[in-house]
Amino acid sequence: MATNLFTSETKFLERARTALTTAQESSNIKSALLEYGLTEEQLAEGWKIYMNAVNVFELSEDPSLDDKDTAKFKENYLDLQAIYKKHRDQVLIFYKKQPEMLMSLGVVGSFPVLYEAFLDKVHRFYGEIHANSEIQAEVRKLKITPKVAEECFLKFEKIHKEKANFTNELLELEDVTKNKNAAFLTLNDWMEDFDIISKVALYNNPQLLEGLGIFVRA
């Protein structure tokens, strides 16, 4: 659903948490980092940046932001598409020699593929049946009753609303993803600076570096 800038976001967050926790709890590491300019205030800022990344990550993993609306929309869309195609084909066959009938129902030309064009055709087809008593009488011969037309029109309205929800969901997901990526990049920048200072401050203490999640080749 979302675009991940990091191979494993959970591992990245865990590594940052481990580094910050160890740096805060180990007096030896804290004093060594302080000598090279990493203060308590800067560690606190690191925690703040980390917690922001955690919060937006958890929001991006919220199950309420999955594609349920998308799946519902597609299911209902395909259902109406199949019904309309059947009715349209029946009309094209039955009224082949009555072009004015075909024009009135808007079934002339190829089957609408694009979403907006499809809904326009559906709206016209069932709307015309609903509004025109003569057409109603004709299409009854094909078992397209006013009740059937009304049910299809209600399906059309439902899909129209679902599409709005689907679009809103996509926009929300895009916003969440942008916020998450921005937070992770900020944390990544902070951790890179942290690692640089740590490697210098703990150059002669590879075991302490390992405690921060930094592994140096022997």
Q: How would you describe the overall organization of this protein?
A:
The chain has 218 residues and is an all-alpha fold. The protein has helices spanning 9-25, 27-35, 40-60, 68-94, 99-105, 115-131, 133-139, 146-201, 206-211.
Low-confidence stretches: 1-6
Tally of separate helices: 9
Please give the largest β-sheet.
none
Total number of beta strands: 0
Shape: rod-shaped
Distance between the termini: 41 Å
The percentage helix is: over 70%
Structural class: mainly alpha
Task: Please summarize what this structure is.
By secondary structure, the chain is mainly alpha-helical.
List the helices and strands and how they pair.
Elements lengths: L8 H17 L1 H9 L4 H21 L7 H27 L4 H7 L9 H17 L1 H7 L6 H56 L4 H6 L7
Helix pairs in contact: 1-2, 1-3, 3-8, 4-8, 6-7, 6-8
Features:
single chain; 218 residues; mainly alpha; 9 helices; disordered N terminus
